[in-house]
Amino acid sequence: MNELRTRVAIVGAGPAGLLLGQLLTAAQIDTVVVERRSRTYVEQRVRAGVIEYGVANLIDDAGAGARMRAEGLVHHGVELRFDGSTHRVALSELTGGKTITVYGQQELVKDLIALREASGAPTLFDTAATALVDLNSPAPSVEVEGPSGALRITCDFVAGCDGSFGLAASSPPPGHVRRYERTYPFSWLGILAEAAPTTKELIYARHERGFALYSMRSPTLSRLYLGVSPTETLADWSDDRIWEELSVRLSTDDSPAVNVGPISERSITSMRSVVIEPMRYGRLLIAGDAAHIVPPTGAKGMNLALGDVRELAAALVSALVEGDERRLDDYSRRCLERVWRAEEFSNYMTEMLHPIDEDEFENAVQRTRLRQATSSPEAGTVFARNYCDLNSL
Ligand code: FAD
Ligand code: DHB
In a mutational test of the pocket of ligand 1, which residue from 226, 302, 304, 386 has the highest number of ligand atoms less than 8 Å from its CB? Predict the structure, then answer.
């Protein structure tokens, strides 16, 4: 087997692995990133779109924010629609001026890959980690399989940023990790459409026929989601049915009709909450979706992943540059406090916005929560702080 030596071996070139690479490169720490998919695949994978206030600043501080600041859409509020009317949550007014930035995850991934390429730090695409070895020794390694065969990457630390169902979370031996999990009885059908956004701000809608979300990517591209049953597939949803359902669920007595256009991307995602504790095993540090999943209502997944990386990069710099491992020892505890807050908020948003068939008690509770979030200044402030900047609170 061929051999390679680096200081931090990073598994996964999603937002977490790439931002970690960027922050460590800036601190002159050598890294190798391995990614089982191709560069084209990861640069085109359509996913998250909402970047929190503090996370946008983190991306900027890492030197990766130029295009996000130039092309990202800055929003000062968000709409909640229910019972036929629209209620705006004034995010900036309620948070002392904070905003969210709408910028596609795949655009951030492109920016981070371009920076990594320019720095000369190696990224091995089409290369899957197959085993994480000797994680309790001072020289752990990652075994990978790529276009030029098998390779062993020996390092000081392994960063497991390989997403849900990755290798990192399943590498600690049984008994070392506790897993918390909940699945929800709905999925999201997401589309990207060549249509000018109908409104300026995001709309989360609870309609008796189900959930709908209006988001966007640019002045000519809309991103929309429908809550669907987990048993449904894309074959059940013709373009006409998608637009008809979006228009019914998003309409209120005085709202404009939803702009329609060709659908360029579509997918169905199931909804789960998962937390793995602790986020460390020996010299393996786990970050992002590899350690936790939130249902997408609330837009916390990528933000949480980048929040972990802020913590992990600082801890690795302390350990590798100053020889002080105390921050690394505290990594999991510090992250999990924030992770559980995001889990709570995403669960609250999910359970407030997805009606449950024939459960009138649950549906009445959901509507009461929505009325409270949009009529009580205190509840509105908590919502706005969590939505805008949970990962920096
Ligand atoms: P990932 O992006 O999953 O990256 C992990 C990488 O590891 C992948 O590229 C994978 O190919 C690679 N990998 C896996 N196994 C191996 C292996 N063995 N060897 C090498 N490489 C491997 N979050 C938000 O914050 N805001 C939103 O608005 C939002 N909307 C979403 C909408 C949808 C429809 C979906 C599906 C998700 C959404 N999310 C959102 C969640 C967000 O996309 C994820 O939380 C985010 O991608 C996590 O980043 P990550 O780097 O931890 O993991
Ligand atoms: C988007 C995704 C989300 O999960 C969300 O809550 C808001 C917006 C988006 O893709 O734009």
Answer: 302
